[in-house]
């Protein structure tokens, strides 16, 4: 058996194909009308074999969660998920109690795809809706129309999926006149079990990054970004969702178990171009180019781009950051005085809930997460950061 607590119980698999690149996207994707499913399967299974050999896993990993993300997994041929599971079996196994998520885009998540995935054992769908505002969809370069998510949700329910997450993007340029409140309302009419939010940013490698750099586009200012984030918190929690992580909301019992692995610092394996794996204390990531990835695996070489060993200082910052980003919070049981002073200050500002033994951020606090995590890590290391 893969030995002890260090063997990953979570696996991410990247599908690097999209019909075209969305304006805001800097992910490792390649534009193509048809995904080369057979070649992709050979490549990710081949990588799994190489990783297993390298890590010394002499028996299949016993997985709790599997996440097939992208890119656009729903572009793959019918039968791809069953084949994936079957061919990974010598290296990784999971049963129906595992959470198996696949990401889908509305235009390619058909009734046939939904039924095929469900039959293969997929039990959770993450649906990229993003907005229900037609001009904003066009601006994003999305392939679906306003009615796409409804059709996809109907297909998911018809196939028997009882756990569907909807992705939404907030903080769009003002000139698009997208009504965020109306979009939240529209998303709730789909009756999802989970909602994930993405605040729009201009990543350098995305078309939007170039537009902003050239002065052709302007992002939402800080105030509107904050207003929209807080409106989502109010709207979704009023509808019964638990705001359990800075960007995620779930109905009771419907939090993402896979993402929970990332937020607790547990090990996870990862396959595919650009995928990041964590074998504590080693963190490493694959080459982003599909061609380079495929050729590397075919030549029997791990497609690793680079890696780092997480040192004590980084670990302290990650402990603070990971602790603060979920509503489980950061334990103050063994806190230093500097940490306790910080907790008192944040509570006075309304950035943290008034618990005694844990430090749990409010939605207002989550808006400041990165800055607060740096301050907390400094306090935990013995510093006295009390930034306001
Ligand atoms: S569908 Fe998703 S992964 Fe593909 S280009 Fe758009 S945002 Fe990026």
State the main characteristics.
single chain, pyruvate-formate lyase- activating enzyme, Arc Repressor Mutant, subunit A, 2 domains, 18 strands, disordered C terminus, binds iron/sulfur cluster
Short description:
By secondary structure, this protein is an alpha/beta fold. Helices cover 39% and strands 19% of the residues.
Count, helices: 14
Envelope shape: globular
Could you list the spans in which at least 5 consecutive residues all have pLDDT below 50?
A: 384-388
CATH architect. name of the largest domain: Alpha-Beta Horseshoe
Helix content: 25-40%
* CATH topology grouping of the largest domain: pyruvate-formate lyase- activating enzyme
Strand content: 15-25%
Mean pLDDT: 94
Strand order of the largest sheet: 11-12-10-9-8-7-5-1-13
Radius of gyration: 21 Å
Distance between the termini: 50 Å
CATH C-level class of the largest domain? Alpha Beta
Summarize the structure in words:
This protein has 388 residues and is α/β, with parallel strands linked by helices. The chain folds into 2 domains: 10-264, Alpha-Beta Horseshoe (pyruvate-formate lyase- activating enzyme), CATH 3.80.30; 313-380, Arc Repressor Mutant, subunit A (Orthogonal Bundle). It is built from 14 helices and 18 strands. The longest helix is centred in the N-terminal third of the chain and has 19 residues, at 37-55. It is globular, with a radius of gyration of 21 Å. 41% of the residues are buried. Iron/sulfur cluster (SF4) binds at residues 18, 21-22, 25, 27, 29, 70-72, 105, 128.
